[in-house]
Amino acid sequence: MSEHVxxxxxxxxxxxxxxxxRRGKLPFGNCPVCARNACGxxxxxxxxxxxxxxxxxxxxxxxxxDPGVIGSPAWAPAWRSAATLAYxxxxxxxxxxxxxxxxxxxxxxxxxxxxxxxxxxxxxxWIYRGTMxxxxxxxxxxDIKSLMAYARWLGPGEGAAAALPDVxxxxxxxxxxxxxxxxxxxxxxxSGQRGRCPHRTPAYLDRGIAMAEQRITxxxxxxxxxxYRTFLAVLSTHGRCGCLTDAHTAxxxxxxxxxxxxxxxxxxxxxxxxxxxxxxxx
Length: 282
Prior knowledge:
Elements: H1 2-13, E1 18-22, E2 26-27, H2 67-70, H3 76-81, E3 84-87, E4 94-99, H4 102-111, E5 116-119, E6 124-129, E7 135-139, E8 142-145, E9 151-152, E10 162-163, H5 166-171, H6 202-217, H7 223-238, H8 246-258, H9 263-276
Parallel strand pairs: 6-10
Antiparallel strand pairs: 1-2, 1-3, 3-9, 4-6, 4-8, 5-6, 7-8
Helix pairs in contact: 6-7, 6-8, 7-9
């Protein structure tokens, strides 16, 4: 406990917002008062909004530089069971390019400007000065963690942090509105395929959407990650045959928003899933 608290206080003194993570590298869930956002807080915005909960609530938005909060009795139970320490890169003014394997590292060395690097369990974090929207799976084995996200604190790393380059910003760039099919309007096929749907019956799709809704509704933590993975699963099964319509996506978006996701986060998660599956241009 004291090791994590001391490290968090050290980060806070440097202007780096810190928070504890529990087993599985997950933030602590909201307390009973703040469950389902009943407190009026806004965990999907850049600040927790009006919520003044003393506990480490609202996921990444709990990250703080206030030593009084970090060392408070309200945070003590979380520190006692914390598995590791995390920080909010966007709040620290940096962007983390999370490289999850050796192939991703090789790609970064060939493509990205040299910068501060931090070894991770399976890969490396490349740290750049500057902030941008966070995005999952911008390419195989690569996530971007900056605004509205958290990253594990694994030490200061080596080398000087370079300015955030355009090549990293471009990884999370969305298609121009005129060229992008809006997620809410998928009433036409996602691909050029035509003809009979390869799924057995329309009921097969309906069951799949219902199961996806249940998966989102049942999420107790890491809601945004659950929404993204669920969207990815739905699109991997039904994204190429042309059977998804705006009614289906509306059901998924409604389930996510009922768990506190914003419409913007739903659209971003859907677009990221399309991109990962190679469906964003079809």
